[in-house]
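Known limitations

Structure tokens in this collection are predictions and should be treated as such. Users comparing against experimental data should check residue numbering before alignment. To illustrate the layout, the record for Zinc-binding dehydrogenase is reproduced below. The input appears on top and the generated tokens appear beneath it.
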Amino acid sequence: MRAWLQTGFGGPEVRRLTEVAPPEPADDEVVVRMLAVALNRLDVLQRREPVIPGMSVPHVAGMDLIGEVVAVGAGTPGDLLGAVVLVDPVVSCGECALCLAETPTYCDAFQTIGSTRDGGMAELVTVPERNCTVVDVALDDQDSLARFAAVPVAGASAWRGLLGAGRLRSGETVVIPGAGSGLGAAGIQIALAHGAEVIALVSGAAKKERAGRDGRVRVIDRSATDDWVAEVLSLTGGRGADLVWDHVGGRFLGQALRATRAGGRVVLSGTTDGLDTELHLPDLYQRGRSIIGHGSYSRADMASAVAGFGSGRFDVVLDSVWPFEQLPAAEARLESDAFFGKIVVLGPSFSTTTHRKDAA
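Generated tokens:
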């Protein structure tokens, strides 16, 4: 079979389309023929350097995938053969107290499909049977396959950060940075679906215009202001937001605190802008504000996100869809930071008929 095999660390040249042996499933695994895989920033970060403990080369990336089950392991029932499944990339033992408590990322056996084990940038991939959710999508429905592939990591993370850790309620105001990212776009859709008022942060006039097309979203262009916190306070009548979802980290965390109301919450879900920060502590204790760690998203979070999209309660924002052979171009799009929404690569069976389509 063919796979985009990473053999070192560095630029795009370390990942090449290569013939490799097809995978053999363990007893509790199934073999999935990849139909669509959505890109994440981690795909690029771990191509450049081994940022995740346990990740090594040679390696096949790709965390978010949907595909057809074409084979099953010896200990796995054949019920899934021929089914289209969406794959949860979080792999754990499924039996320990941490797994049973719905915190699989804390399990000692924790792995990630596409990071510490091979992922979906290949014609075939093995995944545990318990990581598969059957979805009602036709094998040739390219648009639906691409949209479902965009759900897992962004959808489950946004669901956990906003509704689980953040306890976002209808009528509350939430600030969501990075509205053009897959994670930010998913968060906006989920927040709106639950009746929240959304203030989105972007960088650049083009992204501000794109984010503002939904009349329910108020948008602040961080590149056009010296103080986005003051803009939030102005939009909320000086009160501040009920919740700021910080999937940025770095110095943004201290700013996020100042953008919340007295007794407000900040959920920390990521550190793309830095692992360290400085806080003005009176902003925290004198105003009764809280900083909440995002924690592990659960299978229940994943199931809720998938069900919410599948039922049409909220949509998935796609930037572009690419043929399998053009994965390097899709990655370049991700690295350019000009995208808005998720970038998806379709499986090889669609390569001759699919062309890039940017979100307009």
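For this record: The chain has a mean pLDDT of 91. The CA atoms of residues 124 and 229 lie 47 Å apart. Please report discrepancies through the issue tracker.
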